[in-house]
Write a structure and sequence with these properties.
With 167 residues, the chain is α/β, with parallel strands linked by helices. The chain has helices spanning 3-14, 28-34, 52-59, 63-69, 74-88, 135-158; strands at residues 18-22, 43-48, 92-98, 113-120, 123-130.
Length: 167
């Protein structure tokens, strides 16, 4: 069973709806989930918020957050996760923001830096990842890590040990 099949099965079993908000993955998380038969019962909608203006307008990411921390930050991923859940009215959101390259990286924020966020009923978990490879490879690694994060959050909820964001 693939990661996306496991994720959809777990969401269906729990009766949770899901939404996605993506920057660097550009819809690949949504497309991967939508590959699974039966996902239409739980998938609400998806947002591709590549531009900062879209993050603000569609997800409610604060301009101050983007100015102070940048689009590629724990803080932005956190606000994207909360905003996506609220905007879609979904139980769960899964989000990505990062630098897929080959350009755009800096010493502080290199190509391959990706923040993934998952909001489950208001509780947010954010993970920082550093991927390597070309643009397509980084995007696909981010999708895999996002699905792993979703499964982790759903399994931790069962154990009543969901990690909350540190913001």
């Amino acid at each position: 069973m693939t990661l996306e099949e496991k994720a959809v099965e777990k969401l269906l079993t729990k009766g949770y709806t899901v939404t996605t908000a993506e920057s660097c993955t550009g819809g690949l998380i949504a497309a991967t989930l939508i590959n699974v038969s039966g996902v239409s019962e739980i998938y609400k909608e998806g947002y591709i918020t590549y531009a900062n203006e879209a993050k603000e307008k569609l997800l409610g990411v604060r301009r101050e957050t983007l100015e102070n921390y940048g689009a590629v930050s724990e803080q932005t991923a956190y606000e994207m996760a909360v905003g996506a859940s609220k905007s879609a009215g979904a139980d769960v959101s899964l989000v990505s923001t990062g630098i897929a390259g080959p350009s755009g990286g800096t010493k502080e924020k290199p190509v391959g830096l990706v923040y993934l966020g998952c909001c489950l009923k208001g509780r947010v978990t954010v993970r920082k990842e550093n991927f390597h490879g070309d643009r397509e490879s980084i995007r696909h690694q981010a999708v895999t890590a996002a699905l792993e994060l979703l499964l982790y959050v759903l399994s931790e909820e069962t154990d009543s040990q969901v990690q909350e964001g540190s913001i």
